[in-house]
Design goal:
The protein has helices spanning 3-23, 55-61, 99-105, 156-169, 190-204, 208-211; strands spanning 47-50, 65-73, 78-87, 109-118, 126-135, 138-147, 152-153, 175-183. By secondary structure, the protein is of the alpha+beta class. Strands 1, 2, 3, 4, 5, 6, 7 and 8 form an 8-stranded antiparallel sheet that branches.
Length: 214
């Protein structure tokens, strides 16, 4: 599907979503959830520091709960940036923003994009987007997916369709975006960075149903 048809399809889908959710807004359930302030700051071998989000970024994101944190593993000599955006309600058009739109605005260009299957102990496998991006001489590998109600999906369109179904079935429209990223050095094998991100994901996925209510 070319970009024009993709945009038209998404526009129609979003318009239908807004109309449907507005009609059902009086019955929407907004679940309680812990703040990301309590999200673990350290895992085995990993320590972290928070990265504040600017006022401009928060205005673009809209109402929600957000976490941007850099995790450091000295033994591996590597850093992983974790970003989670949770929206308790998406009924008024405050929907999740795809990194495909945000990354170019920050000066990053896609070098390669495809999907990967994340298969972790204790949870059924789910697809995620895999992006290799560049800015000047810098390169980063990015994995991201959409998460709601113990369900991970890669497709933005599928996530929105699930949201409509959940609004009818559960009277809820909450959902989240999870993004992991790490630098890829000039002489570094991209696959080794991918293994690091997947290993880090093993710490994150088991926590998702706590911070993004099931």
């Amino acid at each position: 599907m070319n970009s024009g048809w993709r945009f038209l399809t998404l526009a129609v889908l979003l318009s239908a979503t807004v109309l449907l959710l507005a009609a059902r807004s009086r019955h929407e359930i907004i679940p309680d959830h812990p703040s990301f302030d309590s999200f673990p700051r350290a895992f085995s071998g990993w320590t972290s520091r928070d990265i504040p989000l600017s006022k401009d970024v928060l205005e673009v994101l809209g109402p929600g709960d957000f976490l941007l944190r850099n995790y450091r593993n000295d033994a591996l000599d590597t850093n992983v940036a974790l970003f989670i955006a949770y929206f308790p309600s998406q009924r008024a058009g405050d929907t999740i923003h795809s990194p495909q739109n945000c990354l170019p605005g920050a000066g990053w260009s896609p070098v390669r994009k495809d999907r990967i299957r994340i298969d972790l102990p204790g949870h059924r496998a789910f697809p995620a987007n895999r992006y290799l991006i560049s800015k000047g001489e810098e390169r980063q590998l990015v994995l991201y997916w959409y998460w709601a109600h113990d369900r991970g999906v890669a497709s933005e369109y599928r996530a929105k369709l699930y949201m409509i179904a959940d609004s009818i079935r559960m009277h809820r429209t909450d959902g989240a975006l999870v993004r992991l990223s790490a630098s890829v050095a000039a002489n570094q094998d991209r696959r080794s960075v991918e293994r690091t991100l997947l290993g880090f994901a093993e710490n994150i996925v088991p926590l998702m149903n706590t911070y993004v209510p099931r």
